[in-house]
């Protein structure tokens, strides 16, 4: 018991306020102020006394953190910061890849047209100010441009697509019910009049929003593919994949996901940055010519079943999506024209981060345009043959 009493007394003495008071009774000394630091030639030198030789810092180098990311593993690179994406589109003569592709695709035309040529990106504040633009004046200018396109030999279907792409940003295109799911988009792109909404669902609304939301990943995926050198999932591979995925939803939305010979109104051709534009043009033209033969066969097959032979429609205007690196082009092909050429409708660059919204809307307009045209031709497409299963239990 004596031992425990001594231990308790010792502990109480250690934490007792009297012990603290005894320490406070010691003379208090004001520490000397350190000598102000001086800067010389980009270095900060600390002068005066320091806590000890082990913790003393003699010099501090002031350096700005480097924006570069050093890593042996390319998969660990950061996701596409705006200043880190190298723009490998300029050759030694100063021409860009998009200009080179444009010249090759439009070499058979007297005039060069591009529905995306005048698309500019501004910040939110500037966008509000730019809403003072006269929409009617812009529409009249597009109509005048349409007359020029007719004179150049364009089809009415291609002219409509050209003008629709050029008017994005000047007119509403999405239903107002989607506004809360796409709150980052300008409010002027939404309308309460469902008839004015060009990009919309004719079937399930949920899957339509999900498909459009997934399309917004195309730009970041394409740029990240360049940063990480992600072969074989290159930038052009992502463009091809996302366009086809969105088209799959569009066809399923109208119940045409299973169709005779997988008939479509457009083809997709892609190639790396170094591929010759002439070879991609030749490949696209061959695929569209073969596609025109399929449409011709389909019309002949349904013509025998039709009582009115004169009601058989003419071969439709066909389209192509050509992608190289981050450059994407929409081209049109008229199978009834004597001029066996591809006409450039619009060109886009997914390497420019600020243009992602307008590029996504352009892809949506393109796919929806083809979907609507497919609906008009649905009665002239043969029914898809369903193979009978050999399993009696199915």
Global Rg = 33 Å
Residue runs with pLDDT of under 50 for 5 or more positions: 14-24, 36-96
Biggest beta sheet summary:
4 strands, mixed
Helix content: 25-40%
Q: DSSP strand (E) fraction?
A: 5-15%
Strands of the largest sheet, in order across it? 6-7-8-9
Characterize the quaternary organization of these chains. Answer: single chain
Q: What is the structural class?
A: alpha/beta
Helical segment count: 11
Instruction: List SSEs in N-to-C order.
Output: HHEEEHHHHEEHHHEHEEEH
The number of E-state strands comes to: 9
Report how far the terminal alpha carbons are from each other: 90 Å
The 3D shape can be described as globular
Could you tell me the mean pLDDT?
76
Explain what the structure shows.
The chain is of the alpha/beta class and about 400 residues long. The protein has a domain at about 110-380. Helix content is about 40%, strand content about 10%. The protein contains 11 helices and 9 strands. The protein has helices spanning about 1-15, 15-25, 95-105, 125-130, 135-150, 155-165, 205-215, 220-230, 235-255, 275-305, 355-375; strands at about 40, 45, 60, 175, 190, 265-270, 320-325, 325-335, 345-350. The protein has a 4-stranded mixed β-sheet with strand order 6-7-8-9, with helices on both faces. It has a 3-stranded antiparallel β-sheet with strand order 1-2-3, with no helix packed on it. A two-stranded parallel ribbon has the order 4-5. The longest helix is centred in the C-terminal third of the chain and has 27 residues, at about 275-305. The N and C termini lie far apart (about 90 Å). Residues about 15-25 and about 35-95 have low confidence and may be disordered.
């Amino acid at each position: 018991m004596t031992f425990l009493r001594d231990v308790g007394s010792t502990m109480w003495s250690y934490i007792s306020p009297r012990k603290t008071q005894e320490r406070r009774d010691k003379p208090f000394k004001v520490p000397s102020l350190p000598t102000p630091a001086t800067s010389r030639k980009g270095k900060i030198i600390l002068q005066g006394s320091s806590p000890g030789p082990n913790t003393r810092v003699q010099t501090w180098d002031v350096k700005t953190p480097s924006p570069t990311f050093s890593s042996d593993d390319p998969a660990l690179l950061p996701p596409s910061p705006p200043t880190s994406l190298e723009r490998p589109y300029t050759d030694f003569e100063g021409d860009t890849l998009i200009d080179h592709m444009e010249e090759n695709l439009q070499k058979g035309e007297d005039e060069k047209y591009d529905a995306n040529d005048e698309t500019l990106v501004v910040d939110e504040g500037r966008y509000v100010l730019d809403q003072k633009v006269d929409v009617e004046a812009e529409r009249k200018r597009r109509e005048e441009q349409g007359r020029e396109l007719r004179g150049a030999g364009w089809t009415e279907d291609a002219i409509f697509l050209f003008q629709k792409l050029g008017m994005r940003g000047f007119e509403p295109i999405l239903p107002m019910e989607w506004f809360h799911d796409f709150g980052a988009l300008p409010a002027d792109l939404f309308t309460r009049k469902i008839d004015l909404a060009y990009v919309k669902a004719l079937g399930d609304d949920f899957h339509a929003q999900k498909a459009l939301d997934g399309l917004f990943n195309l730009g970041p995926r394409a740029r990240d593919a360049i940063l990480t050198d992600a072969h074989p999932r290159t930038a052009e591979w992502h463009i091809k994949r996302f366009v086809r995925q969105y088209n799959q939803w569009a066809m399923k939305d109208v119940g045409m996901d299973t169709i005779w010979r997988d008939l479509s109104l457009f083809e997709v051709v892609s190639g790396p940055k170094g591929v010759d534009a002439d070879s991609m043009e030749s490949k696209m033209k061959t695929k569209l010519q073969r596609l025109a033969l399929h449409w011709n066969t389909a019309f002949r097959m349904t013509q025998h079943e039709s009582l009115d032979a004169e009601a058989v429609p003419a071969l439709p205007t066909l389209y192509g999506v050509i992608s190289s690196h981050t450059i994407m082009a929409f081209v049109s092909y008229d199978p009834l024209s004597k001029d066996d050429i591809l006409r450039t409708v619009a060109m886009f660059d997914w390497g420019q981060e600020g243009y992602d919204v307008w590029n996504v809307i352009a892809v949506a307009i393109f796919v929806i345009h083809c979907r609507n045209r497919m609906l008009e031709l649905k009665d002239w497409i043969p029914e898809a043959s369903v193979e009978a299963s050999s399993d009696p239990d199915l």
